[in-house]
Amino acid sequence: MRYVANVDVVGLAIALVALVVALAALQRAKRVARRPDTGASGPSRHGGSGRPVAETEDPIEPPAWLNARSAKAPPAEGVHFELRSLGDSQYRLRNFGTDPAYAVKFRAHRLGKNASYDEFPAGSSDEFELVPKQDAERNVVEITWHERRNHSDQIHHKLLRVPPR
User: Fold this and answer.
1) Other CB atoms within 10 Å distance of the CB of residue 128
2) pTM for the model
3) 137 has which bridge partners?
4) Which long-range contacts link 110-116 to residues 24+ away (Cβ below 8 Å)?
5) What tens digit of pLDDT does each residue of 63-101 get?
6) In sequence order, which residues have a C-beta less than 8 Å from that of residue 38 and are 6 or more positions away?
7) Which end of the chain, N or C, is less packed with Cβ atoms under 10 Å?
8) Partner residues linked to 53 by β-bridges
9) How far apart are CA 25 and CA 22, in angstroms?
10) Burial category of 142 from C-beta neighbours within 10 Å (exposed 0-12, middle 13-18, buried 19 and up)
11) Which residue stretches of 1-120 are H helix?
């Protein structure tokens, strides 16, 4: 009988450990779901949405502003560039942030395209013809800009991968 009792105790101990691990994983998932997306560059004035999760939102379900069928996502604070494929070899560079960018340089040396702008207002976009190479390492666009009109701030820099057609 003693052996059976020890097996029951070991089984109970394993079940308790499994329960603790499951609870820890659930708590971590909730914490990650509540954390705002900060993008690849981490929290900064010109990266990620920085939008906190409202207390009324379910932390497991994605917030309504992430749903593609709902209204557009709120603009990112500061300057935030994205590059999207329009089909064929056409691409659109867009500043979907809340602030304009100044002295913007668009460099796609390996793809044969460069452009400069005195000002790139928030919400504006420009289209380019880019022909991506087979080597994905070469399909990179470099964007530099200032956030101040007089260029007294440091130069901001972002590398964007050219999305597939």
Assistant:
1) 19
2) 0.54
3) none
4) 110/138, 110/139, 110/140, 111/138, 111/139, 111/141, 111/162
5) 554 555 445 666 678 999 999 989 888 999 999 899 999
6) 44, 47, 48, 49, 50
7) N
8) none
9) 5
10) middle
11) 2-34
